[in-house]
């Protein structure tokens, strides 16, 4: 038995020669020639919902395969040795429109709150341009899977092992890499948190694909105007987008902040890559929690509800009395609803 693995006893199928085994996780995958005998003991390889991938320890039947742990209200297997949970690695993606340094600064309070909850291992991941994935040949759907390859590589660099459980968090555009990594890594990901981002839908082009195409038809003012709509408290952006065309160009050319901002927005939104909805994401075995920012018109509870279609497990739709950006920051009283929720919810993975 591998250290720390769960052990299950077969308690069903006594009168049927054991329980049915299939070669794959799906209920329509090929059925094994033998059944897994009653009173056999198996080691858990992977548990996805109610389907157990096992390795035979004692008893008779296929050496390995997939079985259902219950049918309706009837248990077929019972977990007799449940190892203590391995501590997770918490991985987070910030919103688009930020440099790596500013994105890390934005998420610093979140990472501190997660650490205070008892999660030791934490990592902030970035967008494609931070990994020098940009320019000709890197636009559109085609290269997104290579970006996910890079994210998995970066995660494994900081993981204790390539099997360490993961908890993923994506704010705004960070939702896209979060759910795509969860799709790629399957049962290794235990929880996905999505903040202030309307639901992605399998088989449908994402909002970022639509934005990219629209911005290619527009200009710099449209880029900055859209970004300002997400943070209306930003007076500097407000003054820039309200200027006449010639004044706008003059201000952009004379302002390093605005020219750098536009360069970043072009890379991350206008000339960006984005997920292929038929390939890069699907319903995941992890729990999904969506945070609706009630002061943000684009992430109301109804916009978050369809995230439930991308989980095979538990879904929660949590409302926050906050805006698109300030949902990640303590209020004047030093409180942050999102942080308080996370600190309670993360206990399930560390105790």
UniProtKB/TrEMBL annotation:
Residues 126-307 form the AB hydrolase-1 domain. InterPro entries: AB_hydrolase_1 (IPR000073), AB_hydrolase_fold (IPR029058). It holds the Pfam family Abhydrolase_6. One of its GO terms (molecular function) is kinase activity. Keywords: Kinase, Transferase. This is Calcium-dependent protein kinase 2.
